[in-house]
Each structure stands twice: as structure tokens, then as C-alpha cells.
Amino acid sequence: MMNLFQPYLLSFIPIFVAVDAIGNIPVFVSLAEGLSKKDKHRIIVESVTTATAMAVLFMLIGKWVLRVLSITIPDFQIAGGALLFVIAVRLLLPGASKFSLTTNHDKDVGVFPLGTPLITGPAVLTTTLIMLDTYGLVMTFISLILNMLIVWITLVKADVLMKIFGAGGTRAFSKIMYILLAAIAVMMVRRGIMGVFLR
Q: 90-102 burial, b for 16+ CB within 10 Å, e for fewer?
């Protein structure tokens, strides 16, 4: 039974780490501060819809784009892994954050910056394409949708979760996620290098 669910788990975890649902909570709370419950709900719908659409679209056409550009999967693994590692290291530096918070309540914050690049950014797009090549379309799609469902839940319950974790707790959780993201990045580079020499 465990062997049946293992591929789903292995495709779910890297996307979960890249999405960083808990780490997005303070950003959402800041951007939605002072807004009505209706406006907050609209922002959540827009952000999750945008993030999901972007990730699914890239998952479907990403390989075609690579073929057009004559980029192999090992090439993408090395480049994507290097990019993820740089992103992870930058986010681990003191004072770094996924996005510079703004006090302006723009009506499109659900699309930008929340939907992209916070929920679905370079890390998620790269990870999704790698998982697609490793575990196939069905497992990657299910893992992606489950992660977006988790994002939806965390944003809906953002105020409650902020009270439970606190600002420090969410930052600490994010730092752990970034360390895992760096480790996943190293794994991608390693697999890419092995793919170059073994083909």
C-alpha cells in the first residue's frame, strides 16, 4: 500500500516546499489588512485561480517550449536546480522576504503579487516541470491541485494561523522550507548532471 502512494508523496513534497503556503500567510495578511471579508474572499479566489492556472499551463506547454528551444530535460534540471538554489539561498539570508510588502491595497493584489510570483513563481514552475518528467502528468497534476487546496485553506484561515504560529513562527517554518528547497535544488542539479553523462 505504501509503495502505491509513495510516488504521489514524492511528487507532492517538492511542490509543497516550493509553494510555501505557510510562508505566504504574513504577506496575505499585510496586503488584505483593513479590507472587508468579501474583498478578502475575492483576493483569495483570484490568487489561487491565477496560481493554479499558471502552474497547469506551464506544466502542459513547458516541455513543448523546451523542445522548441532545443533544451533537454537534463539541461533544464541543471538550470532549474541552480535557479532554485539561488532563490533558496537569497531567501535564507537575514532580512530577506519573498516580496517587499506594500501598504497599498491594489485591487489586483490577488493576481500580483499574491497569485504570482508568491504562490506560483519560478520555484513552483521549475519544480512542477521536473516532477512532471519524473513522476508523470497524473501524479504531478494531483500533487499540484492538492497544494493549491492547501494554499486556499491557509489563506482562508490566515488570521487564525497567524495567532497560532505568530509572525516568528511563520518565518521559522519558511526558513525550514527554504533549506529543503535548497536540498531539492542540489538533487535536481545532481540528476541533471547524471542525465548529461548517461545519455
A: ebeeeeeebeeee
